[in-house]
Amino acid sequence: MKNMKIFLLRTLILSTFLLSISLLSCTETKTMNGEEKNIKGEELFKFETRDDICSSPAVVKDVVYFGSNDDHLYALDAKTGDVKWYINPEDWVDSSPYVVDGIVYFGCRDWNLYAVDVKTGQKKWRFF
User: Fold this and answer.
1) C-alpha angle 40/43/48, rounded to 5°?
2) Residue 63 in contact with residue 77, Cβ under 8 Å?
3) What distance in Å separates the CA atoms of residue 45 and residue 24, rounded to the nearest whole number?
4) What is the DSSP letter of 128?
5) Residue partners of 104: CB distance under 8 A and separation at least 6
6) Other residues' Cβ atoms within 10 Å of the Cβ of residue 99
7) Which regions of the chain does DSSP assign to beta strands (E)?
8) Average pLDDT, whole number, for the chain?
9) 75-112 pLDDT, tens per residue?
10) Which of 2, 6, 23, 46 would bridge with 18, disulfide CB 3.0–4.6 Å?
């Protein structure tokens, strides 16, 4: 089975993309003068999709947004991995989502650009 792991180190996100997503917590220990850092990761959750994950995730206000080739854009709680909502534009979501002013923007293999409400997952508009 293929795995996707996201390491959150403050605002740095390093990732590889396959069939599932794992979120790891990180603990950082550092003295005020910048001496030694101790970083430990612990898996918080794992979420599997039905096809490849080719988009980079966006993490905003404890929500992870990412698209999958299973024709869905997902919004997951970054602490628990629970699905907040998902939308099915009926084609691969392989572009990386962009979140601004309460809206998630993403492109799809159907050649459309979508705008979705971050709280509800309701489609606001679609543009070809």
Assistant:
1) 150
2) yes
3) 7
4) -
5) 58, 65, 73, 75, 97, 98, 115, 116, 117, 118
6) 18
7) 5-9, 12-15, 20-29, 38-48, 58-60, 63-68, 72-77, 83-87, 98-100, 103-107, 113-117, 123-127
8) 77
9) 999 888 999 999 999 888 988 999 999 999 999 998 99
10) 2
